[in-house]
Amino acid sequence: NAGVTQTPKFQVLKTGQSMTLQCAQDMNHEYMSWYRQDPGMGLRLIHYSVGAGITDQGEVPNGYNVSRSTTEDFPLRLLSAAPSQTSVYFCASSDPRGLGETQYFGPGTRLLVL
Amino acid sequence: KNEVEQSPQNLTAQEGEFITINCSYSVGISALHWLQQHPGGGIVSLFMLSSGKKKHGRLIATINIQEKHSSLHITASHPRDSAVYICAVSRADDKIIFGKGTRLHILP
User: Fold this and answer.
1) Residues 17 to 76 of A: which have CB under 8 A from any B CB?
2) How confident is the model at residue A6 (pLDDT cuts 50, 70, 90)?
3) Neighbouring residues of A15: CB distance < 8 A, sequence distance ≥ 6
4) How far apart are CA A68 and CA A56, in angstroms?
5) pLDDT higher than 60, residue A72
6) Which residues pair with A21 in a beta bridge?
7) B interface test, pick of A25, A32, A43 with most B CB neighbours within 10 Å
8) Which string of DSSP letters, residue by residue, matches A54-107?
9) Mean predicted lDDT score pLDDT of chain A
């Protein structure tokens, strides 16, 4: 198993550009989530999904969209990048729910918005 | 006030010392997680607890549901234990909330 994979590892964007951060898992996990990590802030939940076709907002959803058309994939879209979205983004999954199961994290995507 | 508070924020100790990191939370939870973030940035799940105590090698995690408190202990600490240790709680609404982490540095 590859576990949780994220692409790209690193990205530089200009303000106003859009992009999609990819996340995939091959463990058939129902629960997937996106976090951002900023210095002094800890990890914060952006969006999460408890299964294919179901998504919901976390603590800091503004400026981000998600979809979950398959169990395996959970892409995060930045519609119009802003410097405030400069951060490290982690995707995670767990089975069957996030309520009480071990979380598996991807390696992270480092995003710089100029 | 943050829903999950960790202490200390930073900890430096000598190799071999017994380490304790504390986590307090203010919401109802279904589980508590301890995570380790390596200097390279990767995050690994160490423990998931809903009650009592768990042990894995030199690491021990305890939780007191009534007091809304958990501790992570490291026995016979080693420089390779240097990392950021993060406490997180799973709320009943499917959301996971994280503490800000404890940066541990073990000196040889």
Assistant:
1) 31, 33, 35, 40-45, 48, 50, 56, 58-59
2) very high
3) A81, A82, A83, A113, A114
4) 10
5) yes
6) A76
7) A43
8) EEEE-S--TTEEE--SSSSB--EEESS--GGG-EEEEEEEESS-SSSS--EE--
9) 92
Give me B29's structure tokens.
């939870």
Instruction: Please report where in the chains the tokens 């992570």 appear, as a residue.
Output: B72
For the record, the structure tokens of B22 come out as 């504390």
Chain A positions in Cβ-Cβ contact with residue B39 (cut-off 8 Å):
none
- pLDDT for A99 beyond 80: no
CA torsion angle for A109, B6, A47, A111 (degrees, to 10)?
-20
- What b/e string do you get for A11-42 counting C-beta neighbours within 10 Å, with b at 16 or more? bebeeeeebebbbbbeeebbbbbbbbbeeeeb
Q: Does B96 contact chain A (CB < 8 Å)? A: yes
Mean pLDDT of chain B: 93
The amino acid that residue B5 corresponds to is E
For residue B98, the distance in angstroms to the closest alpha carbon of chain A comes to 6
Distance, in Å, from the CA atom of B49 to the CA atom of B33, rounded to the nearest integer, reads 6
pLDDT per position as a tens digit, A102-113: 789 999 999 999
B87 near B8, Cβ under 8 Å? Answer: no
Measured between CA atoms, the residue of chain B closest to residue A47 is B95
Distance CA B17, CA B76 (A): 6
